[in-house]
Every structure is written in C-alpha cells, then in structure tokens.
Write a structure and sequence with these properties.
Elements (H helix, E strand, L loop, with lengths): L12 E7 L2 E4 L4 E4 L2 E2 L4 H11 L8 H8 L7 H15 L9 E4 L3 E4 L4 E6 L27 H13 L2 E5 L6 H12 L7 E5 L9 H9 L9 H8 L5 E5 L5 H14 L4 E6 L9 E4 L14 H4 L3 H13 L7 H13 L4 H8 L2 H4 L1 H6 L4 H4 L14 H9 L4 H10 L8 H8 L6 H13 L3 E3 L7 E3 L1 H14 L2 H22 L7 H9 L2 H11 L6 H17 L3 H16 L6 H15 L12 H12 L2 H17 L3 H9 L11 H20 L3 H14 L13 H15 L3 H15 L4 H19 L2 H18 L2 H16 L5 H7 L7 H10 L6 H9 L6 H12 L2 H14 L2 H17 L3 H13 L8 H14 L3
Parallel strand pairs: 8-11, 8-12, 9-10, 10-11
Antiparallel strand pairs: 1-2, 1-7, 2-3, 3-4, 5-6, 13-14
Helix pairs in contact: 1-3, 4-5, 10-12, 17-19, 17-20, 18-19, 18-21, 21-23, 21-24, 23-24, 24-25, 24-26, 25-26, 26-27, 26-28, 27-28, 28-29, 28-30, 29-30, 30-31, 30-32, 31-32, 32-33, 32-34, 33-34, 34-35, 34-36, 35-36, 36-37, 36-38, 40-41, 40-42, 41-42, 42-43, 42-44, 43-44
Length: 938
C-alpha cells in the first residue's frame, strides 16, 4: 500500500516551492522562471531558500547570518548587497508585485503566496506510480502567530484522544492551527497525514469519497466505505477533516466508523460546532490575545499580545513603510480590540493599511464589512470577505436561530439568558425557545460564553455588526430596541434593589453592574431617538442614575438627565413622580459637574416645592440630599448647614433603612458645612459622630465616597488649621492608603482636598509636585470635570513658585473649569489669587475657612494694620492657629518695620507658643526668622 506523500517513509520525492512565475528547488539550489534558470549567486539563492521556507514569518538578521554564513563573520552591508541582488532578480516592486518585506530592526519576511508540489528525485523508469496519489497536507503560505500554547495543548490532546475537534467561529484560524498541528505530529505516524477539505461539498454522501481521494484509495463510486475500511485498517495515519460544520452528522458518522475499523488512525477535525461523535475531544480555539483597553506602556509591551504581532506583520506586508511606533500604537491596539482578536479580520484589516493609513482604518471599523470587503484572491471564497464568512454560517441555521441571532445584535456588551429571552422573545418565538437558540448559537461559535462565574454571553464584534444588518433587513429594529430598553430598565431596577441589603459589597456591585453601561447607553440613545418614548426614557435615566454616579459618569449623566426632563415635560401627559425623581438627580449631579450645560437657576426651588407637595418620605429625603449636594458643589456653605439641619425635621421611621441613611447624611453635611464656614470645633464633633455611627447604610443614598474618606479629609484639614501640621499630613497619607482599595473618586477627593493643599501649605513643593503627577495620571484615567479642575489649580500654584509644570498642563489639555471652591483654595496658596470673587464670598459670610488668610493678604497688600488685626482676631476665634501664625507674622513684620520691635516679638512668641509641631513648615520657618530678627539689637 503506497505511503502518503510527504511522510517520513517516502524518500522518492522532493519539494518544489512555487510563487508568482517562479519555481524554487531547494535541494538542487535552483530557481526557475518558466523554463529558464534564473541566474543568482549562491549567497542570494541561500537567502531566498531561507526566506521562502519560512514564508510569512519574520526572519531575523541573526537567523539569516547563521543559515547563509554559518562559519563566517560578515558585515551587515553584505546582507543588504545580496538582498538587493535577490530583489532585482525577482523583479520585487515591479508592477506592484511584492516578494520580500523589510522590517527595520527586526529582519525580512517573504510575503508572496507560496505553494508546494512534488518533484521526482528517482531516475525515469525507476518510480512505481500508485493507482491514486494520496493528497499532501497543504503548505502554510504565511507564518502562524501566537498559537504556541494552543498547539502544545492540542498536541497533548491528540496523543490522548483519537478524535479531536477544533471548534471556533469562522475566521479564527482553525485550519491554520490544524495544519500546523498535523505538520508537527506527522512524524508520529508511519503513513503520514492526509488532508480532507469538506468545504466544497454540499452532499453528505460525498464525505467518504472525499476521504478516499485524499488518502489515495481507489474506491468505487457506488459505495466507497467497504474498500476504505479495508485500505485504512492497517494504516498508521493522521486524517485532518477540515470544515465539517455543514456536514457534521456525516463527518461524525465517518469518524466513528474509522476509529472502530482502523485502530492506528487518528482524526483531527475542524468545525464551527462540535461533531457530537463518540469519544470526541473538543478544543475551543480562542481569539488571539488582545492588548488591554489602556494603551500599553511601550511598543515592546504591546507586542507581547499575539493579535498585535499578527497585525504588525501583515501591515508591514501591505505597506513597506509601516512600522509600529508610539505614534500609531493606540490606533493599532484599537483595531485589534475592535476585531476581538479574530485572525482573519485582523489580516484583512492589516491589508488595508497601505491604502487607508492606520488612523483612518481605526476610525472606520464600524463600517467593517465594506471596509474589509477584499481578501486574498487565492483564499476560499468564504474567507475572502467577512461578509462571505458569516453568510456561510448564517445559511446553515434554522429560521428561529437566525432571528434570535439578529435580535441579539442590540446588545453592546455581554448578556445572560434572562436578558436574551426578554429581548429576542416574541409571540412567534417564546422565551424558552430563545434560550435553546442561544445555546445553539454557542455551539456554532457565533455567540461566545464569557469566562467567569455567572453564565454570560456575547457576540463578537464582527458577528454583531453582521447580525445588526440582518435585523435591519427584517424590519424588526424598533420592536427589538424597545424590548432591549425595557430589559435594561428592569435590570437596573433589580440592581438598585440589591443595595437595600446592607451586606451587599458596594465595590463588587459597581464592578458587576458597570459592565452593563454600553447597553444602558444604547437603550438611552434609542429612547431619545426616532422611536422616542419619553416616559421609558425617564424611567431608564432614573434607574441608571445610581450606577452612573457610583462609577463616576457624572459628566455623561448630566446631559442625559436634562434631556430626559425636557422630553418628559413635553409629553402630553407628564408624570409628576418621574419629574420629581429626575429633578432630584439633576440637582445632585449638577453639584458635582463643571460642564457648560445650562441648569436653570430655579431647579433647586422646583425640586424643593415638588418634593414637599407630592413626594413620599423617602423621596423627600432624597430631594434634601440632592439639595445639599447641589449647594455644596456651588460653595454655598450656609445653605448646606441650613439644609443639613432640616434632616432632623423629616418624618421618623426607625425601621426604614433610608431614614438611617438620611440621618447619617444630615450629620455628614453638617460637618462639611461647618468646616467650610470655619467652625472647626463643631465640624470636628460632627465628623466624630458620623464615624462613630457609620455603618453600611446606603439605601437611597447617592455618594461616591466612603464616609471615612469624606470625614477623614475634613479631619486632616481641621488639624492643619488648628496648628498640627505633622498630624494633618500623617492623617492625609493614611487616608491615601485607605483610598487605594476604595472608590476611584475617593483618591481624587483625598489628593485634591487634603494631601495636595496640606503639602503646599507646609511649603513642601517637592512632595507636592510628586503627588501632582499622580493626581494628573488618576484624573486623566477617570476624566470627571469636577476633579479634572483640581490638578489645574495646583499647576497654577507650583508654576508661580517657579516649578516647571508645562508638561503636566499639556497632558491636562483644555479641561480647566474652575468654581468657587477652587477660588477659595487658591486664595490660601498664593496671594496673587486673592481677588474680588473670594473677597465677596468672605464678606457675605458664604465661606469662612479661608477668611482669615484672605483678610491677611488684603491687609498686607494695603499695609493696613487694622485689617491684619481683624485677620488675627478671626483666626483666633476659629481656633485656626495656622492662619493666626500667618496673620501674626505679617502684622509683626509691619510693626518691626515701624520700629515696634518689642510688641512684634511678644506677638510672635505668643503665636509660636501655641504650635507644638511642624517645625519644618515654611510658615514656622518664616515666623522663627522674623522673631530672630526682632531679637537682634541694632
């Protein structure tokens, strides 16, 4: 029985490698074009053999030197000279034909398609020709990228199991992996391996015929199975059954039969769904690894991900000038992520780099089917375009399964079976049938099961776009989108209900439900689009409010809340209860945003009126919370204190968890208001009360900050004001460590409102600059307007103090939107920032914490002793020894200049006596130097 061509037992044949008009005979070191020998030097010919045998791979300079000049030391220029001669002989670049791509710093790659044929090395007449020639394994024309681990696992599975099926969606590289695995395993089989491509077949009865032809068995057309059994019974052979999905039952039957009659035959199958054959081992081939969402720190780090390596290699073949660099890294990563690591899609995308450019390609991937329409002409028809690839799978499905696939395209992220049933179900396709269809789509690899604990599913990006186009053809978009919006509303309502359980971990809650935001956005967009439903839109905004604020999407949520309220009010029958809830959210979020959206000035008054006319006790508590947040965000501290006091007048229900949360909120806002009014003793007591009673209460409360953070920040600031500079810094640093595991905006809060100002008040500019870099990094990651403004504040201060912060400002860009809180803060950090706005706020009693320092700066500017005395007196009344020391130092300097040395000395000694720590701070050094000058006798 003849052996399979290409097996180790078949020495009578040699390989001929064909590309373009050329044929390369590696054994004879001969290159032919047509019937003529191409004249090439031996070194150039050796280079060609080295490159063609690794077609598609990047062959490094070191590998080429080792193969072509193994025992000779040569200059780099020699390689370039011989490569130039080789390219000239091939006509590389002539008529747009490319053979060899140069990858600067990495090596060369042979990029022309290569096929392999057999040539005889036996004298004529000495060769016995079999009745039928077995079919050789197809040759890989390009290198395989990023599948080493999969090949190791599959190799082990193939040793343990006689039937292994590689399952994945189309375009994931099943055939590529199977061929690489077969090539590596062929030495373990005396009769080699044969390849059977079932893709061209549309008749299940032809499957045995295809195997007979591939295995070199001359079997009768009527019934090939008996002769096939006899021929293969004694063979030690690896059979690759490729593209089984449309003939899965026939392939499974044939495989089971062969495994029974041929004990040394092993079968490696590829399919988009399991064969469901006896003893079958299934291996699901995952996409190539993609870089994380955040841009990799370097090109080298990014190239650790196989999808990016594949993209770079194929892009370099498309565009001779393409080189991955920090400039195009983000766009390249975005393409690979967008295409879910699908090798075929990545290769098609990379082939467009040469005529589109990397950035344009990244920006237009939503138009992926038109953009990636053209593939290799030599590929199978269904692999030439993504459209054809998905048409092949789509046409194999039943009508219900196709309809469910189309409807699932409305999901922008993962979904569970309940959501799938809610969205894809209808009178014709009941929910139980939807679940069956989803599981069928999973088996067909069009829907993938997400890794992790709970069963969640998603469509790959390319499959979702394809299904969305089909849904539009169905004319079912509006009905499905409405069911999707309803499903999202109900999902969010269930999520909000979870928070009524005080044992629900808030960080885990945020992490789990944040994954739904792409679908929440899509649903919100639909409710305000052509199929607008303002009532459903209002409900969706309300139910999503807690999630959006908890994950810091304040800036995104504010225009949503405004649009939702406007749409609801324009409705023929506006729902007053929904309006109350939207007003509550609008007041709350507008107090935590610095956007240019116009919020009507009477919005708080509208909320207050409506809440007390129609609101339930819980809604009244939520309204009061929103009003406090709104006033605090505007820097209106007297209003914060007065509204905080009103919590005590709310209806009492000890069994209502929202009442407990409201009580805590009242104490919290009282502490905040008292502190910013400069009433430190009262603020400290309120902080202690909050921290003493703080528990897991959070039902109905929208706060992004753990109470230990908001109260701890106040305590650190108060200790600074009271003259305990070291304790204040220690407290802020302790909070910073706590924030590492807390909400991301806890870190923003601690850095912006405690650590940075304390360091700058102390005069520790070096540490402040270090933490400013961290603050900028953090805010650029989370990008919320309220917190983005704070690093701008500290850049201004450090720039005035002579530090170079230009690079940090450039990174922040045009995100500086100041508010009254920052105006107050700046007035304590540099006298240049004390202007009319803060003077008005101090004069009206709206702010008190910075008032002594503002009065001091004004008195020092005007050389006004009375104003400085007012600053000293106010600081003492507040117990603010830090501000008292500054005011005393300014007053003492004025007295010393006026010759009043003794009163100046006494004033400084009294102030310094009240401060027991912080000897290294700038204020204490300044005061001590002035006291020393007062002691100096002229």
């Amino acid at each position: 029985m003849p052996g399979v061509l290409g097996s180790p037992t078949d020495p009578e044949f040699e390989r001929a490698l064909n590309f373009g008009p050329f044929t390369l005979d590696p054994a004879r070191k001969r290159l032919m074009q047509g019937g003529d020998v191409v004249r090439l030097g031996s070194r150039a010919l050796d280079l060609l053999v080295a490159l063609v045998e690794r077609a598609g791979d990047v062959v490094s300079h070191a590998d080429l030197f080792a193969q072509v000049w193994p025992r000779t030391v040569v200059e780099e220029s020699s390689l370039r000279v011989h490569m130039s001669a080789l390219r000239k002989a091939l006509g590389d670049g002539v008529d747009g034909r490319r053979y060899i791509a140069s990858l600067p710093g990495r090596g060369y790659s042979f990029v022309m398609n290569v096929t392999q044929t057999q040539t005889s090395c036996v004298p004529p007449g000495a060769m016995t020709v079999a009745p039928m020639s077995p079919r050789l394994l197809p040759t890989r024309l390009t290198g395989i990228v990023g599948r080493d681990q999969e090949l190791d696992v599959l190799s082990a599975k193939l040793e343990r199991s006689r039937l292994v099926t590689i399952v994945s969606p189309g375009g994931m590289g099943k055939t590529t992996v199977a061929l690489a695995l077969a090539a590596a395993a062929v030495h373990r089989h005396a009769d080699g391996a044969c390849f059977v491509d079932l893709a061209p077949l549309d008749d299940a009865s032809l499957v045995p015929h295809a195997l007979a032809a591939a295995a070199g068995v001359a079997a009768p057309e009527s019934d090939p199975l008996p002769l096939l059994d006899e021929a293969l019974a004694a063979r030690d052979l690896l059979i690759v059954l490729d593209n089984c999905e449309h003939l899965a039952a026939a392939a499974a039957a044939l495989a089971e039969r062969l495994l029974r009659v041929a004990p040394r035959v092993r079968i490696l199958a590829t399919s988009r769904e399991p064969l469901e054959a006896e003893t079958e081992t299934i291996y699901r081939l995952d996409p190539l690894a993609v870089p994380p969402l955040e841009t990799a720190s370097s090109v080298e780090d990014a190239l650790a991900f196989a999808s990016l390596r594949l993209f770079v290699e194929r892009a370099a073949a498309s565009d001779n000038d393409f080189l991955l660099s920090p400039t195009n890294l983000a766009a390249s990563i975005r393409i690979c992520r967008h295409l879910d690591g699908m090798p075929l899609a990545i290769e098609l995308a990379a082939s467009r780099v040469g005529n589109l450019g990397i950035q344009a390609l990244a920006d237009r991937l939503d138009d992926v089917f038109r953009l990636l329409r053209r593939g290799r002409r030599t590929a199978l028809p269904r692999h030439q375009t993504l459209q054809a690839l998905l048409d092949w799978s789509h046409d194999l499905m039943e009508a219900d399964t196709r309809a469910v696939l189309h409807r699932l395209s409305v999901f922008r992220s993962s979904f569970d079976l309940q959501a799938a049933a809610e969205v894809a179900g209808c009178e014709r396709i009941p929910r139980r049938r939807v679940i069956t269809c989803v599981l069928d789509l999973v088996s067909r690899s069009l829907v993938v099961l997400e890794p992790g604990g709970a069963a969640r599913y998603r469509l790959l990006f390319v499959a979702r776009l394809y299904a969305a186009e089909r849904l539009a053809e169905d004319g079912d978009v509006q009905a499905v989108a409405r069911r999707h919006a309803l499903s999202m509303r109900d999902l969010l309502a269930r999520a909000n209900a979870e928070l009524r359980n005080p044992d629900t971990p808030l960080a885990l809650w945020r992490s789990v439900h944040a994954a739904a935001m792409p679908d929440v956005r899509a649903a919100l967009d639909w409710t305000h689009g052509p199929g607008a439903d303002p009532v459903l839109g209002a409900e969706l905004v309300i139910e999503s409010g807690r999630l959006q604020l908890e994950i810091g999407l304040n800036d995104e949520f504010l225009p949503r809340a405004l649009a939702g309220l406007a749409a609801l009010r324009s409705h023929a029958d506006p729902n007053a209860s929904l309006g109350l809830q939207l007003l509550t959210l609008l007041c709350m979020v507008s107090g935590q945003c610095l956007l240019d959206h116009i919020i009507p000035a009477d919005t708080p008054a509208q909320l207050e009126d409506l809440a007390y006319r129609i609101g339930s006790p819980e809604q009244q508590r939520m309204a009061l919370f929103a009003l406090c947040v709104n006033a605090f965000g505007k820097g209106d501290y007297p209003t914060v204190v007065s509204r905080a006091a009103r919590y005590a007048a709310l209806p009492v229900d000890p069994l209502d968890p929202t009442h407990a949360a409201a009580t805590m909120a009242g104490w919290r806002f009282e502490a905040l208001g008292r502190h910013y009014l400069g009433q430190y003793e009262a603020a400290w007591k309120s902080c202690e009360r909050v921290l003493e009673h703080a528990g897991p209460w959070r039902a109905g409360s929208y706060t992004q900050l753990p109470l230990p953070v908001s109260m701890g920040t106040l305590q650190a600031r108060i200790r600074w004001m009271q003259g305990f500079a070291d304790e204040a810094l220690d407290r802020a640093l302790e909070l910073l460590r706590f924030c590492e595991a807390a909400h991301p905006f806890a870190l923003s809060h601690t850095l912006s409102l405690a650590l940075m100002p304390i360091l700058l008040w102390r005069g520790d500019d070096a540490q402040a600059l270090s933490f400013l870099v961290r603050l900028v990094d953090h805010e650029l990651t989370h990008a919320q307007s309220f917190w983005m403004a704070w690093p701008h504040t500290y850049c201004k201060v450090l720039a005035l103090r002579g530090h170079d912060v230009d690079a940090l400002r450039a990174r922040l860009g045009n995100t500086d939107r100041g508010n009254d809180m920052q105006t107050d803060m700046l007035s304590t950090l540099a006298p240049q920032f004390v202007g009319p706005a803060v003077l008005e706020r101090v004069g009206s009693g709206t702010v008190g914490w910075c008032a002594p320092e503002v009065l001091r700066v004004v008195g020092e500017r005007a050389n006004d002793e009375l104003q400085l005395l007012r600053a000293v007196a106010l600081a003492r009344s507040q117990g603010a020894r830090a501000w008292e020391l500054r005011a005393v130092t300014s007053l003492a300097a004025q007295w010393q200049d006026a010759g009043r040395r003794d009163p100046a000395r006494a004033l400084l000694q009294e102030a310094l006596a009240g401060i027991t720590e912080g000897g290294g701070t700038a204020d204490l050094r300044r005061a001590a130097a002035l006291l020393s000058a007062c002691d100096t006798v002229n």
